[in-house]
């Protein structure tokens, strides 16, 4: 129940604001949670505003090269993806991926899945325009991203991980195997 979650999160933010300054990381974290709820409710403009605000706080507190900053960039990329702003979404995912790669962080797998989703959407758009070769190239890039993601989840997660199962199913769907 996202609407109820939004009400409770807003109540939590009011409580946090009574203890912390507007620029505190706890407030930024609460805004990220509210942004994720707003994203699920389809309130993309609100989600972007909240995430951009949180990003500024995280960059100031944790630094522009931190894992925490990378996570916010990834969330922002997801909202832009839902808005069908693929170029902006990809830009944010690429920034997040670079930050995760710097520290060899396992969460890169999520960004690679997101990049695969972008390529798949681009493939479908190209196919609708009759651009068969371009569509195939995008599809191959989507598969490559998923394979790279699979390599990571195989390294960091147990065999029965839902991440492994999800990525395997997506690869089977894309490859027809």
Strand fraction equals under 5%
| Structural class designation | mainly alpha
Number of H- or I-type helical stretches: 8
Helix fraction bin: over 70%
Global outline = globular
Q: Helix and strand succession?
A: HHHHHHHH
Radius of gyration: 18 Å
Poorly predicted ranges: none
Tell how many strands the DSSP assignment holds. Answer: 0
The average pLDDT value, as a whole number, equals 96
Structure report:
This protein has helices at 2-17, 25-40, 44-62, 67-82, 86-102, 108-128, 132-156, 162-175. It contains eight helices and no strands. The N and C termini lie far apart (37 Å). It has 177 residues and is mainly α.
């Amino acid at each position: 129940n996202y609407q109820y979650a939004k009400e409770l999160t807003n109540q939590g933010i009011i409580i946090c604001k009574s203890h912390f300054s507007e620029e505190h990381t706890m407030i930024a974290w609460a805004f990220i949670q509210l942004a994720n709820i707003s994203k699920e409710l389809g309130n993309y403009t609100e989600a972007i505003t909240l995430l951009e605000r949180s990003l500024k706080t995280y960059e100031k507190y944790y630094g522009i090269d931190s894992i925490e900053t990378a996570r916010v960039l990834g969330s922002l990329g997801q909202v832009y993806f839902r808005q069908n702003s693929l170029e902006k979404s990809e830009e944010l995912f690429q920034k997040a991926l670079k930050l995760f790669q710097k520290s060899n962080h396992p969460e890169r797998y999520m960004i690679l899945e997101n990049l695969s989703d972008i390529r798949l959407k681009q493939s479908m758009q190209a196919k609708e325009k009759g651009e068969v070769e371009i569509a195939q190239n995008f599809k191959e890039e989507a598969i490559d991203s998923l394979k790279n993601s699979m390599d990571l989840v195989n390294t960091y997660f147990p065999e029965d991980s839902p991440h492994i199962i999800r990525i395997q199913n997506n690869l089977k769907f894309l490859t027809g195997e």
